[in-house]
Amino acid sequence: MMLAQHVAAYTQWRTNLAGGLEAFRKWLSENDLSDAQTDLRIARLLEKLREDRLNIAFVAEFSRGKSELINAIFFADYGSRMLPSTAGRTTMCPTELMYDPSKPPSIELLPIETRESNAGISEYKRYPEEWKVIPLDTGSTEAMQDALRSVSDVRHVTPELAEKYGFPTGNGNATVGRTGEDGTVEIPRWRHAVINFPHPLLQQGLVILDTPGLNAIGTEPELTLSLLPNAHAVLFILGADTGVTQSDLAIWSEHVAAPNQHKKGRIVALNKIDGLWDELKSADEIEAEIVKQVNDCARTLDLPSSQIFPISAQKALVAKVNDDASLLNRSRLPALEAALSQELIPAKREIVQELTGTEFSDIHARMRGLLDSRLAGLREQLDELTELRGKNKGVVEYMMRKVRVEKEEFESGLQRFYAVRSIFSQLTNKLFSHLGIDALRSLTAQTRSTMTGATFSKELSEAMRNFFAVARANLIKSDGEVTEILAMMEAIYKKFVVEHGLKLDSPTGFSLIRYKKEIDRLEHWCDTHLNTVFQLATNEKSKVTQKFFEEVAVQVRKAFERANRDAEAWLKAVMAPMETQVREHQIQLKRRLESIKRIHQATDTLEDRINELEHVEQTLLGQIRSIEALGLEIQNTLSTVADETGLRAA
Fold first, then answer.
1. For residue 373, what pLDDT band results from cuts at 50, 70 and 90?
2. In this structure, how many other beta carbons lie within 10 angstroms of the beta carbon of residue 12?
3. What is the pLDDT of residues 235-266, one digit of tens each?
4. What is residue 234's three-state secondary structure?
């Protein structure tokens, strides 16, 4: 099955999952079980599924055939090369290929001059007026090809301006912009490109990140700090004609398989094997040469040879355009596409399964608990009324006093609940005093002041280390607050279960470990790219300070913002079941008391009331069966292999 089929299968699985959640939300509303908090939680799950993206990054040094490989995998159906693919550099700036139905097909280009500001690419995405927009005429292949060439545009500037934009100059291999005979330097015209294109795969949520070579990657730290680490699969392309060069190895070690980064979803393509197709050699000799190249690359990259796929992107494109199955097999692209699918789809699917499964299980358990509570209260009411059959008025009065005492005792116990809610609010405030953005903003301002006033490199280095130490300490303190909140809620849950018979499972846990790991990753990047003896010795203090806050501190802030959103959602989720059960128990007690009062006033209504409650009991039992069936259906969808789902749907 080709990559397109795998993506289609995954999309169908995601659509089935969203359909199940929508049906569950509708059922809750129709059965008067929904509330504002539950509806909001399901709406957020559905929104996440709608906005779900499969991110795949293509990384290589220039002239490795990266753009040709993207053409072969994704654009062969158009009958020609859509992305520019010629000798030398064609991808001059990071380029995202995606589809947003709210925008017309177009190319959005961020001018290189924006490097002069302190804002990153993600910041500029909030300001569409800063981008140049070129419309895409999807009805004309030639017009689209012409428009797409704009991504490769360059400028010739003075060496000083090139340095200012972050491009080292000179004539060595380690430079980004090479100085020409006229003394000017060739640099990209654009800092970043976003191609909004209604390709079937992009319409299904696939996002392709096409990156430039080694030094161009280094000039845009958001790539290595955010875009590449967050890709669900990274395809690293080598050339069979070059093997693993020093710049290839640098990209691999620094940006693709760097320490402390997950290796899952990393695939290597050894491109241009058609250069080894020698008519004077036998098929066995050619195969031996390819195997040797693969083994050499595997040894250099410290990978098993099974993770390296020899291919010919150019021949694969020709084969697909001409519908030549024999040439396509010889290009070996199908094996790479299969491997890419096996890395990309499961990696993303696991994330969706974990997030959706955990949240839905909690919502489902809460709603099932609510029904169980209603059923228990109703059966208690039925037992009481059944016992009143044939009893005199004195017994009815005794029963009424008994329920009234129980109601008063529960309302007395509510004072404890209100006290807990007050303490909960205090602990929440304490949690956000460490985790909140205000605390991070204060730390950032303090660090900036220290770095700006620093005289020696050592002071700069210590300020950066202190920034991470305090940020990490705030997460550790926040974890302590989370533990205290959870312990308190567990205790009060158990108390109300024992004393008042509420139906409460253990409260949902919460962990900040993913954010601690993100801080560790960002600190490692800082220690290897910025807070080094070489960088501190060769760069001005102001430049180091600027890079730290533009590139590193921004990513730390984003991590804390995500942690805040998750913590707020958890705090609402952990208190909601308690509030719902307390409210439900109050309603049940009130109904029991009113029923007995009515029986006391007119004993001939007893049988009518019993019959009415027995009917309600059957309704509740039917609701419990329905909610279990709906929950099982969604759990089955979650655990179904995505490819199987798509194939069945097809």
1. confident
2. 19
3. 999 999 888 998 888 888 877 875 544 456 78
4. strand
Tokens 């990753």, located at residue: 521
Q: Which domains, and CATH codes, for the chain?
A: 54-153+189-331 (3.40.50.300), 388-601 (no CATH)
How does pLDDT run across 121-173, given as a tens digit for each residue?
Answer: 888 888 899 999 999 998 888 888 888 888 888 889 998 888 888 777 655 44
- Would you list the DSSP string of 283-299? HHHHHHHHHHHHHHHHH
**Distance separating alpha carbons of residues 293 and 309, to the nearest angstrom:** 11
| Separation CA 3–CA 56 (nearest Å) | 12
Run of H or E residues at 124:
helix 121-124
Sheet strands (E) in 413-454: none
The first and second tokens of residue 96, run together, are 């995202």
Kindly list the strands in the beta sheet with 106-111, ordered across the sheet, starting from the edge strand earlier in the chain: 132-135, 106-111, 190-196, 95-98, 206-210, 54-59, 233-239, 266-271, 308-310
CA torsion 83-84-90-94 (nearest 10°) is -20
**Residue 361, number of CB atoms within 10 A of its CB:** 15
Number of Cβ within a 10 Å radius of residue 125: 16
* Size of the chain in residues: 650
Segment 95-123, tens digit of pLDDT: 899 999 999 999 999 999 988 876 778 88
Per-residue pLDDT, averaged over 422-449, amounts to 92
CB 274 within 8 A of CB 289: no
Average pLDDT over residues 52-62: 87
Q: Rounded to an integer, what distance in angstroms lies between the CA atom of residue 109 and that of residue 475?
A: 38
- pTM for the complete prediction? 0.73
User: Do 604 and 393 touch, CB atoms closer than 8 A?
Assistant: no
